[in-house]
């Protein structure tokens, strides 16, 4: 019988790895976690948490502007970027300590350093080797920078979260989650913002109507859109940067941010030594139980490039521990996962897009509404809300829900429960709304248009 130093060795101390470690330890497993940077991973240290704190900060500027329509007379306000970053750093450090305490209370050994798989059931950290019955890779992903002349002059979201000074003019290259979110952050904190995206619409993979709507809303908020555009080069000019677009236009800005995606952190892990395959993007393919191509190595979270959301990574880590150490057969469930983009306004969805629904179902009914929210009546802001439901035409079961509005993330969570429970359009119709609110629109939608499969 093999005797190992640990029953489970986790590489990566982010949300997925920490949850897997704690649950496995709770089942009596001897567990170690290796983290080369800081416990908490992308979400706590470089992602969800600090980014949303900056989003909150940026909303105050817009709120001050809107307040004039409600009778407020506010003297000239100013923002101190350094104070915001200091406050953010204090909160992130507090959360990091909580992660440390949770692992300590669970009896998990934390090892600081870069872990490398050096052989079957063997991991090396800081020139010290450890053996383990099972290895879990939970190393997440990192920002990817596009390739063209001058890309070394660009910053990523990681760099922005550590910036010491605000910037007046910002060009953001990309059109996904991170690009949309930081466009709102910079704009709300007083910067002039350009978004350069090679696609004709933002947020690839989202519902097409949602994509069109959020693009219009960001443009209405004076974010300068350069869609269907490419970047040819970036160069330094004194204390500024010149951004050369494929169209021939040249933008002069003070900061160029790359927000063109993320790639899994699988380089130099030694996966090839134990037969763990990675795909062309560097992600680790796994089955519904997070098993890799090596029978004792598992992977969860963004490193697998399945559904890159923090709650999903936590769910995957928990399901792994339940299955392997808790004697439960618990496959990962990626159905009906709600998600949100913390842009301004926010985008939130759960279930199928209209295009996905039409590809799967013979017929669907699409209910939607675009309207001016009540607060815009006095603020004077050029703002429009989108609310959309997609139902199976035969069963009337709700297949998808989408919203573009302030606080959309808070609204979609409750809608996600309804979809998970199999709610129909009749269930929504029978529910009274909270008036006056944006959320009530979901239960007052009446007029539908019929859509079918392409080609049918």
What is the fold's blueprint, element by element?
Layout: E1 6-11, H1 15-26, E2 31-35, H2 41-46, H3 48-67, H4 81-106, E3 109-112, E4 115-119, E5 122-125, E6 128-137, E7 141-143, H5 157-160, E8 169-173, H6 177-188, E9 192-197, H7 208-220, E10 224-227, E11 231-237, E12 240-245, E13 250-253, E14 255-258, E15 262-264, E16 297-299, H8 310-325, E17 339-341, E18 346-351, H9 354-360, E19 363-371, H10 376-379, E20 385-392, E21 398-405, H11 408-420, H12 425-429, E22 448-452
Parallel strand pairs: 1-2, 1-6, 2-3, 6-16, 8-9, 8-14, 9-10
Antiparallel strand pairs: 4-5, 5-6, 7-15, 11-12, 12-13, 17-18, 18-21, 19-20, 19-22, 20-21
Please tag this protein with its features.
456 residues, alpha/beta, FAD/NAD(P)-binding domain, Enolase-like, domain 1, 3 domains, seven-stranded mixed sheet, six-stranded antiparallel sheet, 12 helices, 26% strand
Overview of the structural elements:
There is one protein chain. The chain is α/β, with parallel strands linked by helices. It folds into three domains: 201 residues, FAD/NAD(P)-binding domain; 110 residues, FAD/NAD(P)-binding domain (3-Layer(bba) Sandwich), CATH 3.50.50; 108 residues, 2-Layer Sandwich (Enolase-like, domain 1), CATH 3.30.390. Helix content is 30%, strand content 26%. It is built from twelve helices and 22 strands. The strands form five sheets. Strands 1, 2, 3, 4, 5, 6 and 16 form a seven-stranded mixed sheet that branches. A six-stranded antiparallel sheet has the order 17-18-21-20-19-22, sandwiched between helices. The chain has a four-stranded parallel sheet with strand order 10-9-8-14, covered by helices on one side. Helix 6 links the parallel strand 8 and strand 9. Helix 1 packs parallel to helix 8, helix 3 packs antiparallel against helix 4 and helix 3 packs across helix 6. The termini are far apart.
């Amino acid at each position: 019988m093999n005797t190992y130093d640990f029953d489970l060795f986790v590489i990566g101390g982010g949300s997925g790895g920490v949850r897997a470690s704690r649950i496995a330890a709770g089942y009596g497993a001897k567990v170690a976690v290796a983290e080369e940077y800081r416990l908490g991973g992308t979400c706590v240290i470089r992602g969800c948490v600090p980014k949303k704190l900056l989003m909150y900060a940026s909303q105050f500027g817009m709120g001050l502007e809107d307040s004039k329509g409600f009778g407020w007379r506010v003297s000239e306000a100013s923002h101190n970027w350094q104070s915001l970053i200091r406050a953010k750093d204090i909160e992130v450090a507090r959360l990091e300590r909580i992660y440390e305490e949770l692992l300590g209370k669970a009896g998990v050994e934390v090892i600081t350093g870069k872990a490398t798989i050096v052989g079957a059931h063997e991991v090396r950290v800081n020139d010290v080797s450890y053996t383990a019955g099972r290895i879990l890779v939970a190393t997440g992903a990192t920002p990817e920078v596009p390739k063209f002349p001058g890309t070394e002059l660009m910053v990523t979201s990681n760099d922005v979260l550590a910036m010491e000074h605000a910037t007046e003019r910002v060009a953001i290259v990309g059109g996904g989650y991170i690009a949309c979110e930081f466009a709102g952050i910079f704009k709300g904190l007083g910067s002039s913002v350009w978004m350069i995206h090679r696609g004709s619409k933002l947020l690839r993979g989202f519902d097409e109507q949602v994509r069109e709507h959020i693009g219009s809303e960001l443009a209405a908020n004076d974010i300068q859109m350069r869609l269907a555009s490419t970047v040819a080069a970036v160069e330094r000019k004194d204390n500024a940067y010149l951004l050369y677009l494929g169209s021939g236009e040249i933008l002069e800005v003070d900061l160029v941010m790359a927000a063109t995606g993320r790639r899994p952190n699988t380089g130099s892990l030694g996966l090839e030594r134990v037969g763990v395959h990675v795909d062309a993007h560097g992600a680790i393919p796994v089955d519904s139980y997070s098993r890799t191509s090596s029978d004792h190595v598992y992977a969860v979270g963004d490193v697998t490039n399945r559904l890159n959301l923090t709650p999903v990574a936590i769910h995957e880590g928990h399901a792994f521990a339940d299955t392997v150490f808790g004697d439960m057969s618990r496959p990962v469930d990626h159905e009906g996962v709600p998600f949100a983009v913390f842009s301004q306004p926010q985008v939130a969805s759960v279930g199928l897009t209209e295009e996905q629904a039409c590809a799967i179902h013979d017929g669907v009914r699409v209910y939607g509404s675009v309207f001016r929210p009540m607060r815009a009546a006095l603020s004077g802001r050029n703002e429009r809300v989108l609310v959309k439901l997609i139902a199976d035409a035969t069963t009337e079961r709700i297949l998808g829900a989408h919203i573009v509005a302030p606080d959309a993330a808070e609204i979609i969570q409750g809608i996600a429960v309804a979809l998970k429970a199999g709610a129909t359009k009749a269930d929504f119709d029978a529910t009274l709304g909270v008036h006056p609110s944006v959320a009530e629109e979901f239960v007052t939608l009446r007029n539908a248009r019929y859509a079918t499969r392409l080609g049918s």
